Amino acid sequence: MHSAKSTTLWFKRYGWVLLICLFFSATAQDNSPYSRYGIGDIVPNRNIISRSMGGVGVAFGVDTSLPYIPVGMLNISNPASLGSLSSNSYINTLFDVGVEVDRHTLKSNTTPGKYTSNNINISYVQLGFPIASKKMELRGMQWGLSFGLRPLTRINYKVEENKRLTNIDSVNLLYEGNGGISQANVSTGIRIKNFSFGLSTGYSFGSKDYSTRQSFINDTIAYYRSHSSRNTRIGGVFLNLGAQYQIKTKNGLLQLGASAALQQNLTGTADELDETYTYNSYDEPVSIDTVNYKSNNKGTVKLPATYSFGALYRNTHWLFGADFDYTAWDSYSFYGTKDPSVKNNWTVHVGAQYYAADKFTPINKYWRFVKYRTGAYYGPDYINIGKERNIYGFTVGAGFPLTSFQRLRLGGEYVTLNTSLEVGARGDKNSASFRENFARFSFGISMGQRWFQKRKYD
Predict the structure, then answer these.
(1) Domain boundaries, position 57
(2) 131 near 147, Cβ under 8 Å?
(3) Mean pLDDT of 220-233
(4) Whole-angstrom Cα distance, residue 163 to residue 167?
(5) pLDDT one-digit tens code per residue, 295-344
(6) Residue 255 lies in a domain
């Protein structure tokens, strides 16, 4: 195994610039009709380690006490975990970045047709480090801080429909939409003995853009085509709270966790347009007459609160966990209008991890230092159209050390490649219109380093 020294130096100098650029330039060819409703497709709010265990993560803390078992990670679903960062541990600074590659397949329940799309996106970028003073740590208190950026939702669809308007004529309808919401966050957590609590705040920003084009299908009468669009820019402050409690047992550690993403009241600025149009010789739409136009129309977008609870037990070799999430979608509204296409939903996550190595494992036994993970999740979809549909998935993954095992034992610093493969579905053959199968491969780099410390010996 090679030393991670050169990798660490490179990330220190250039990593943030590169990853932020990737975050905004990640490509997406997804076409999810479900993202037309509510605020779009919800992006998983767990890191790669948690995703490979079915989404378990609310109770997951940072433990840097054992250099031969590096389990440190930045828990983006519970800021209380930052209270475990300590300047006196083997590592004191954590850096996490995740990337996901999705493959979605839409299957119609009424026709044999199907549609497949692929996309790649940055999942999150997060940096955390301790800020407690020496006096605080001597009193048994720890305090951590982190900064990061991640997507919250994504909107991307293009759907065509042919139907008959009663007593009028047949029409072709083309629905298009894009956008989504992201969050830039600053999070902090403090630990007093076995209890940790924290908060995460920052700015949510994004857009929700959609349009509808209507064309009559008629060979004898020429109708004008119509186009309606609404482009809304969204922004506002958010606040998440979290708590964790650790209970030492005879053979391991039991961790309990809870978090709440409070309701957000975001400010919206919308441009509305209703017009008739035609196509020019280049097959480009050209406006004929503007029926309605409003610019900078202010309003409020209310995003619902989400509450999560979790428990996790681990010892030297095993980790088992379970989470429960609940989102109150009945409080969601867009410009003061309730959305009947959404409903309250919940999700259950279960997962496990196995790690074969201990402090006596020979350093040439590489595969014993790999962490093997698996899990599953299940719950009803928050989209409420037609018959109820469920979302469920199964996950597997592994954490591959990229640091020499001698370096792990001597200093505790590490670089790990975490991977996750998630296979699941949205809806089934009894669902209205169509169902969606998906495979999501995620990978990320987790780094635990001793930064911001003066060397005693050079």
Answers:
(1) 5-152+184-200+240-260+306-327+349-449
(2) no
(3) 86
(4) 12
(5) 999 999 999 999 999 999 988 889 999 999 999 999 999 999 998 889 99
(6) yes
Contacts of 184 (CB under 8 A, 6+ apart): 148, 149, 202, 203, 205
Residue 341 covered by a domain: no
Task: Tokens 């950026």: give the residue.
Answer: 149
Q: What does pTM read for this prediction?
A: 0.86
Tell which wins on pLDDT, 374 or 94.
374
Give the chain's domain count: 1
Fill in the amino acid letter for 167. Answer: N
Higher pLDDT, 163 or 27: 163
pLDDT tens readout for residues 60-79: 876 544 444 445 578 888 99
CA end-to-end distance (rounded Å), the chain: 24
Give the contacts of 46 (CB within 8 A, at least 6 positions apart).
55, 57, 76, 77
Quickly state the pLDDT bin for 188 (edges 50, 70, 90). very high
